[in-house]
């Protein structure tokens, strides 16, 4: 075999032989989460989702986007006492049972569930989440985490402008003050998301996995793992 033919043969073999260590690209799992920032089960669902994601990052890449849901669209922007609101909405006995249960659930996640502070309108928090989404899903997810922690574990009112600005600064959201000062900023996005993702949803959290698998409520990590598997195989 002459030299030219030998080089051509070796080149052909090299082209057909995969390089050592190369792997097929991992499937991308896109997750749309419909949630309200004052919903305790939404926080629980977020943590369970993240447990499932952490357990399967060797198999999949993930992209999580948050969408608004307004549990109380007519809530007072000034805020009312959280405990009093629970009692008024659920009744004294049921409110006590809910608080006891949520305290246990949060403890299992290593979190403190606080019933102190104010609750009220979540519209501005969703407007801020919309801004964060424009700057990247990772920033958006970090902001959602910060708002949940503020509201449920630190007794901060997430309808308060200063609380929102501090949360935005902590996760490095640009332009938050100007955005919040413009009462129309983000409204169109919120309305679009409410129509596209919240329509027909009776309760949150609600998860849409790669546009195929649907999960409602604070599902355990195993349910998400199964949904990832099904979504990646179709």
UniProtKB/TrEMBL annotation:
GO molecular function: oxidoreductase activity
Entry-linked SUPFAM superfamilies: Thioredoxin-like
InterPro entries xref list: DSBA-like_thioredoxin_dom, Thioredoxin-like_sf
Stretches assigned to the DSBA-like thioredoxin domain: 31-228
UniProt xrefs under Pfam families: DSBA
PANTHER family (UniProt xref): GLUTATHIONE S-TRANSFERASE KAPPA, THIOREDOXIN SUPERFAMILY PROTEIN
Protein name: DSBA-like thioredoxin domain-containing protein
Native organism: Adiantum capillus-veneris (Maidenhair fern)
Taxonomic path: Eukaryota, Viridiplantae, Streptophyta, Embryophyta, Tracheophyta
